[in-house]
From TrEMBL:
<feature type="transmembrane region" description="Helical">
    <location>
        <begin position="408"/>
        <end position="425"/>
    </location>
</feature>
<keyword id="KW-0812">Transmembrane</keyword>
<keyword id="KW-1133">Transmembrane helix</keyword>
<dbReference type="InterPro" id="IPR029062">
    <property type="entry name" value="Class_I_gatase-like"/>
</dbReference>
<keyword id="KW-0472">Membrane</keyword>
<feature type="domain" description="DJ-1/PfpI">
    <location>
        <begin position="58"/>
        <end position="224"/>
    </location>
</feature>
<dbReference type="Pfam" id="PF01965">
    <property type="entry name" value="DJ-1_PfpI"/>
</dbReference>
<protein>
    <submittedName>
        <fullName>DJ-1/PfpI family protein</fullName>
    </submittedName>
</protein>
<dbReference type="InterPro" id="IPR052158">
    <property type="entry name" value="INH-QAR"/>
</dbReference>
<dbReference type="InterPro" id="IPR002818">
    <property type="entry name" value="DJ-1/PfpI"/>
</dbReference>
Length: 440
């Protein structure tokens, strides 16, 4: 009996070791998603246009950053409409990390915005998901949002930005929604909110909340429709190739079937590929976000933002981004080099790197990014990534390996090797003196 129990405990220990290793690796992967970049000088502020006759819309970035698509997709859509003064704002003007490793220098601090607008509250404040939602570190943002709301600002939360509004008390007594993976915990954390499942956006009057990630596009277009009319909203949707305006797709409402692929990638990709993302002047904000968000959600790659000379770049609608390396210096450590933006072509590239031009310019940017992920990682991971982003995939053809077989094989081999070793352990031998002692 003792021998059996000993072997059983040894087998359990063998099973726990790879599980613990995978868990540690996965947690490290999650922690890295919002890690700040190195210290760098803050580029001088660029003079910003302000038309007092147009409504002002701001995208709020937290002191610890924000989710890249939640911030950049609404920004570009609002800017593309041509009907708003659009800015990114934060409590201070300094480099802030967007998920995946893209560092943004906000256009304005809260104080700068007040000076620019003559103290008037913005017409619309967009609140993306933030890595520290519900934590004391969000106080500068939640305090500012409460003040702006009290002075008439409309609020639009994207994805788990609803948690930021809820923690500020701005959703109490209202219907609201959030990402399908987080809304359950929000129901426990903020019971005064009437949480709604299965909607891409919920309009409660002065506040609109949206479901996961790209549902923020639908919520942004809805706000544009309210403030500038359906024609302006339709043109903005066309400008970014979002074909679902007026025909909102359904949302995911439960754990998706390909989820284990991402879990395996997070826990068992011991040396994830380092993927460089080339920042080029004039690149579209949604093009950038689609690459960082897709690889961020896949948990399969390590991203590194680079520019030709390591200096800042300005995007299509004037945002300032800081790379974390220059291309020549980073090249030896890169496994791939992705180049966001349709029509972008690089000049000289370091030997051994073949640029991958992600965007065709003929389709929605995230469709191209997910296709690239499927080809280079696997289809299951790409489908999981699309579902977590609320990207419709009914007519999205994905080609590539079906599953992350290599990562799956590693823990299985370790487990079987450990079990075999335990089973093959020699039994303890009973000596003649032990027998005599037992008989006596």
């Amino acid at each position: 009996m003792r021998t059996f129990l000993g072997r059983a405990l040894a087998v359990i220990a063998v099973l726990l070791i790879p599980m613990a290793g995978g868990t540690i690796s996965a947690l490290a992967t999650f922690d890295a998603l919002s890690a700040p970049g190195p210290e760098r000088p803050v580029p001088a502020a660029t003079p910003l246009a302000f038309d007092p006759a147009e409504p002002t819309a701001v995208v709020v970035i937290g002191d610890n950053g924000a989710v890249v698509s939640d911030a950049l997709a609404p920004y570009e859509i609002l800017a593309a409409s041509g009907r708003f003064n659009v800015y990114t704002v934060a409590s201070r003007r300094r480099p802030l990390p967007l998920t995946g490793g893209l560092d943004l220098v906000p256009d304005l601090s809260f104080a700068d915005l007040a000076e620019l607008t003559g103290g008037a509250a913005p017409t619309l404040a967009v609140v993306p998901a933030m890595p520290d939602v519900g934590e004391p570190s969000t106080a500068p943002v939640t305090t500012w949002l409460r003040d702006q709301a009290s002075r008439g600002a409309l609020l639009l939360s994207v994805c788990n930005g609803a948690g930021v509004l809820a923690s500020a008390g701005l959703l109490d007594g209202r219907p609201a929604t959030a990402h399908w993976m987080r809304i359950g915990s929000f129901e426990s954390d903020y019971p005064a909110v009437n949480w709604v499942h299965g909607k891409r956006f919920v309009d409660s009057g002065t506040v609109v909340t949206t479901a996961g990630v790209l549902s923020g596009i639908d919520g942004t277009l809805h706000m544009i429709e309210r403030l500038a009319g359906s024609t302006v909203a339709a043109n903005a949707a066309k400008a970014v190739r979002w074909r679902y305006y007026g025909n909102t797709p359904p949302v995911v409402t439960g754990i998706a079937m390909p989820a284990p692929a991402a879990i395996i990638n997070a826990g068992w990709t011991w040396a994830p590929p380092t993927v460089g993302v080339m920042l080029t002047p004039g690149v579209g904000e949604i093009d950038l976000a689609s690459v960082f968000e897709t690889h961020d959600k896949s948990l399969a790659d390590r991203m590194l933002a680079v520019s030709a000379d390591g200096g800042p770049i300005r995007s299509r609608h004037g945002l300032t981004f800081l790379p974390r390396a220059d291309l020549a210096g980073a090249a030896p450590d890169l496994d791939r080099l992705l180049v966001p933006g349709a029509g972008v072509r690089l000049g000289q590239v370091p030997d051994g790197l073949e640029p991958v031009y992600v965007h065709s310019g003929q389709d929605f940017a995230y469709n191209d990014a997910v296709r690239d992920l499927a080809r280079t990682t696997d289809v299951a991971t790409a489908r999981w990534t699309a579902e977590t982003m609320e990207l419709p995939t009914d007519d999205l053809r994905l080609d590539g390996p079906a599953w992350p077989w290599q990562q799956t094989a590693l823990p299985i081999l370790l487990i079987f090797a450990g079990i075999a070793a335990v089973i093959c352990l020699p039994r303890p031998r009973t000596t003649r003196s032990q027998i005599s002692t037992t008989t006596a």
